[in-house]
Automatic annotation (TrEMBL):
This is Aminotransferase class I/classII large domain-containing protein. It comes from the Eukaryota. The keyword Transmembrane does not apply. InterPro entries: Aminotransferase_I/II_large, NHTrfase_class1_PyrdxlP-BS, PyrdxlP-dep_Trfase, PyrdxlP-dep_Trfase_major, PyrdxlP-dep_Trfase_small. Residues 56-370 form the Aminotransferase class I/classII large domain. PANTHER family: AMINOTRANSFERASE FUNCTION, HYPOTHETICAL (EUROFUNG). Belongs to the class-I pyridoxal-phosphate-dependent aminotransferase family.
């Protein structure tokens, strides 16, 4: 049997998510109903009824095996200026499916893989599962989670098969700009290394002057973007993601592997996602506002904490990684206590192997933050 590490953050969320009253751990922007997508899209009664008629009368076959042309066009539209065509899209079951399929298609036993840290655990655990030798490329709070590119340059060699980054980053919410991304592309390009950027929080760039480009924008054929409609587009319940790349050989490899574990995604998800992505600017506009407002709320509580809490204020994504300035603090116990005794969900840094930090999601309910932070503050003052 293939050996795997437990997926700490997913197991933690699964344990508490559905039972707490105040969820400060959510990573998705506030999820939408179909009615709400319609409202945002400015849909009138005719649109609503034609969408529901279409859904009700759709024959529930496998649909287009690799995703409908309409869906692939809507996804391609998110990558304008990158040279991507719809032939470079592989539709998957969420970004989690996209990442898994990418590793399945690229990583062999003994391959050297460099993975940014901290990040979503899947990005290091799955390459290990396929026999990869994983080196973590550590980001530091003191550096504002910006990369030490000289260090990366040493870490990546012609023997490195794959470099994995995540922009905007979960858990820190830090965004790397085009200057950094292009230098990372250069490092990969001179070593002929694949470069996967998990862009599941793109284009949620609510607090930057210039939104960075997708990793596909730098003209590097071995670049891969994975993403989904879960986070920035508020539709995690559709379970729809994708791999995007200009490397046609890789696309063939992914599709061939995909035959064994996907066949097709749900035809209903395909239609709803296409509808939503055709109006994505409206969804994004709402979520930018939500994130900006909630960041102000968190900022206020951090200021009031008198130095107990500290952060690198996120520029993108929907999560931040708050540093708890209390000697020897067991943030895992803290988070479990708050979930079990107070009904407040925060994600402890320990599930990212970073004790002393708490991940807070700010794309969700403002009220939950306003109730949760005073409870956290009280706990810390005890
Ligand atoms: C960085 C990152 N990648 C991938 C995923 C998986 O997202 P989904 O499968 O819902 O698209 C998550 C979920 O939290 C994530 O944070």
């Amino acid at each position: 049997m293939v050996k795997q590490e437990d997926f700490a953050v997913e197991q933690y969320m699964d344990k508490y998510e559905k039972y707490v009253k105040y969820n400060m751990g959510e990573t998705c922007c506030y999820s939408l109903s179909i009615d709400e997508i319609n409202e945002l899209a400015g849909g009138d009664a005719n649109d609503v009824s034609s969408l529901s008629q279409d859904l009700l009368s759709t024959r529930l076959t496998y649909g287009h095996i690799t995703g409908s042309p309409e869906l692939k066009n809507a996804i391609t539209n998110l990558y304008q200026g990158t040279g991507l065509t719809s032939d470079g899209i592989v539709v998957t079951n969420g970004a989690i499916g996209a990442n898994f399929l990418s590793f399945y298609g690229i990583v062999d036993k003994g391959d050297h893989v460099v993975v940014v840290d901290p990040t979503y655990q899947q990005l290091s655990s799955v390459p290990k599962m396929f026999g990869g030798n994983v080196d973590l490329f550590e980001l530091k709070y003191e550096d504002q989670y910006q990369p030490d590119l000289a260090k990366l340059d040493k870490l990546v060699t012609p023997n490195t098969k794959l470099v994995v980054i995540n922009n905007p980053n979960n858990p820190t919410g830090v965004v790397w700009g085009d200057d950094i991304l292009s230098q990372i592309v250069d490092i990969c390009s001179k070593n002929d290394t694949y470069l996967l950027c998990d862009e599941v929080y793109r284009p949620l760039y609510h607090s930057v002057d210039h939104s960075p480009s997708s990793i596909l924008s730098f003209g590097y054929e071995k670049a891969i973007s994975t993403s989904s409609i879960s986070k920035a587009f508020s539709l995690a319940g559709l379970r729809l993601g994708w791999i995007a790349t200009n490397d046609s050989h890789l696309v063939r490899e992914f599709l061939s592997k995909r035959d064994y574990n996907t066949i097709s995604i749900s035809i209903i998800d395909d239609k709803l996602a296409t509808y939503a992505l055709n109006h994505y600017e409206k969804i994004l506009e709402k979520n930018y506002k939500l994130c900006q407002e909630n960041l102000e709320v968190i900022d206020k509580y951090i200021n009031e904490s008198k130095g107990l809490l500290e952060w690198i204020r996120p520029q993108g994504g929907s999560t931040c990684f708050i540093k708890v300035n209390k000697k020897d603090i067991d943030t895992y116990k803290l988070a479990c206590d708050l979930a079990e005794k107070e009904g407040v969900l925060l994600v402890p840094g320990e599930v990212f192997n970073h004790r002393g930090y708490l991940r807070v999601g700010f794309g969700n309910s403002k009220e939950d933050l306003e109730v949760g932070f005073p409870i956290l503050q009280k706990y810390l003052e005890q």
